[in-house]
Amino acid sequence: MELEEMKSLWEDMSQKVNQQKVLTDQLILDMTKERYENSVRRISVPETLSALICFAAVFYLISNFNLLDVWYLKLTGALTIVACVLLPILSLKSINKMKAIEVSKSTYKESLVNYAKAKVRFMKLQKTSFYTSFIVLILAVISFGKIMKGIDVFTMTEKLNWLVPSGIGVLFIFSEWVLKKYKKATDAANAILKELEA
């Protein structure tokens, strides 16, 4: 009888250990998933806020488009609108690709491959946005200058001489800082996924 009791106790303990291992593995996976989502959120929140600002600018430009009375002002306004709609949408779509990676439902390799593709796409888009933002800044200064102040920047070169270079300098510093932050956040998310292998 003692042998059967020992065998039964041993099987119970073995089953409990196996259940504990499954629970521990699930807990680790859940924590990894949460850390990954937090890492991607560090990118998505500022991008969402930036998109809202861009959409507000588009709304303002469209509602005051009639104030852009010369063909080149209409062209700069239209290009500003296109850029302020297109760039945020592409960026948010790219972030959603990273968010859509199911850490707990995919294998380690699938998660890492999917994330690597999404990260490369996102960083390429951010670099493209970095360079086009300088053009968008100039277009926006021209458009908003006319709408808000009634100034045709093309006819007032002394304003362009200090306004555009100072804006470009500030934008360059800010854009470099943002790119570094995004690279750090995407690298952190990548490191979290690599921990799954261990």
Which secondary structure elements does this structure contain, and how are they paired or packed?
Blueprint: H1 2-63, H2 71-99, H3 108-149, H4 157-195
Helix pairs in contact: 1-2, 1-4, 2-3, 3-4
Please tell me about this protein's structure:
By secondary structure, the protein is mostly helical. Helix content is 87%, strand content 0%. It has 4 helices and no strands. The protein has helices at residues 2-63, 71-99, 108-149, 157-195. Helix 1 (2-63) runs antiparallel to helix 4 (157-195). The longest helix has 62 residues, at 2-63. The radius of gyration is 26 Å and the shape is rod-shaped. The protein starts with a helix and ends with a helix.
How many helix segments?
Answer: 4
**What does the radius of gyration come to?**
26 Å
Helix content percent band: over 70%
Beta-strand level of the residues, as a percent range? under 5%
End-to-end C-alpha gap = 43 Å
Biggest beta-sheet profile: none
Shape: rod-shaped
Number of strands: 0
- Spans of at least 5 consecutive residues whose pLDDT stays below 50 are none
Order of secondary-structure elements: HHHH
Structure classification? mainly alpha
Report the mean per-residue pLDDT as an integer.
Answer: 79
